[in-house]
Amino acid sequence: MFAERWIFDFIVYVFALSLVFALSDLLHANQRSKRLSYGLLLLVWVLQSFVFILQAASILPGMFPIDSLFIYSWVLVSFTLIMHVIYPMPLLFFLTNFVSFLVLMIHVFVIQNVSDGLQELYVSNLVLVHLSMAIAAYAAFSLSSIGTLLYLVHTNLLKKKSGRVLRCRCPA
């Protein structure tokens, strides 16, 4: 149990350091912060993959009461690493890692340290969180669809050189 907790704690600390450097790079573009953040996140991914492989091979049985949160965090970290190589966007890098960090924190510090009765309560609460997030995702999808539609209309009007180009009436 101590070895398992030590691995998870180490992953959380390295992940937190990666987030600190990602925030530093986001606030003031700095090549050293960007490299440190990416390197530490790569270390987190390697450690998560190692733990995931050990659990899948049943070398450490019973390590995860709920595997889905750990897998979700691992997938988000993988997505971030791939997207950073293809097209580096500091804001996407930071926000995706922050969400992944929160999911990992829930998995490590909330779910693992409870009895079976409380674990069922947490699972039911996670279902409520899941439904809330799904509704928020539908709302975000709707807003992005509307924005895309407005972009297409605006581009079409610009191509036609129509005088009815959509203008923002935002205070300057």
TrEMBL record:
<feature type="transmembrane region" description="Helical">
    <location>
        <begin position="36"/>
        <end position="57"/>
    </location>
</feature>
<protein>
    <submittedName>
        <fullName>Uncharacterized protein</fullName>
    </submittedName>
</protein>
<keyword id="KW-0812">Transmembrane</keyword>
<feature type="transmembrane region" description="Helical">
    <location>
        <begin position="6"/>
        <end position="24"/>
    </location>
</feature>
<feature type="transmembrane region" description="Helical">
    <location>
        <begin position="92"/>
        <end position="111"/>
    </location>
</feature>
<feature type="transmembrane region" description="Helical">
    <location>
        <begin position="69"/>
        <end position="87"/>
    </location>
</feature>
<feature type="transmembrane region" description="Helical">
    <location>
        <begin position="131"/>
        <end position="153"/>
    </location>
</feature>
<keyword id="KW-1133">Transmembrane helix</keyword>
<keyword id="KW-0472">Membrane</keyword>
